[in-house]
Amino acid sequence: MCIIFFKFDPRPASKNAYRLILAANRDEFYNRPTKAADFWASNSEILSGLDLEEGKEGGSWLGINKRGKLAALTNYLEGRPNPDAQGRGFLVSNFLADQSQDSYSYLKRVSSEGHLYNGFNLLTAEFKNTPDPAQESQGEGYSSPMLRALSSVCVRSPHYGTRTNTIILIDASGNVTFTERTMLNCDVSQWSTSSFQFKIQN
């Protein structure tokens, strides 16, 4: 199965930090014809690997374009995949090539067409240097300092903020470790940590 890990920080604290760190594995049949990542001959703004399988040529599993649009695809196993389903890789390629649709509009359209494909997970993002109107309108009526405070990964303000952190780990055998760190008495200097372990029941 394919897997993607990513860390996203929209406003890194320093110029040496990263906005996105993404690691991905593509699991596929070894003999499936594939072109390694490169800028496309047909569109030099897009960088991705390409599927060369007959009938699926031009699809991709992970790519980014010079305008900051990124897409990644993972599939999931189904009991009986539909051999006549559309190629999932085109979900990535079409998003990267279509400059007229933002992530939200594209995913909304894909959600109405999802039945045409075998099972998949699709991640899209836009890393443009211009403000996102949808994000800009969320802050209407709030001051800039308040917006900066509320948009942090860990929010800290006098009366509102991140008061609980949770990590859930599940190992290959189904053992779960659930760890939670919670603020005590509305005091950002006092925290309690609880950890629980159990095995998922079959």
TrEMBL record:
Q: Name one GO biological process term.
A: Golgi organization
Which ranges of the sequence are coiled-coil? none
Q: Which InterPro entries match?
A: TANGO2
Which Pfam family name is an example for this entry? Answer: TANGO2
Which cellular components does GO assign to this protein? Answer: Golgi apparatus
Q: Return the protein name.
A: Transport and golgi organization 2 homolog (Drosophila)
Name the source organism. Oncorhynchus kisutch
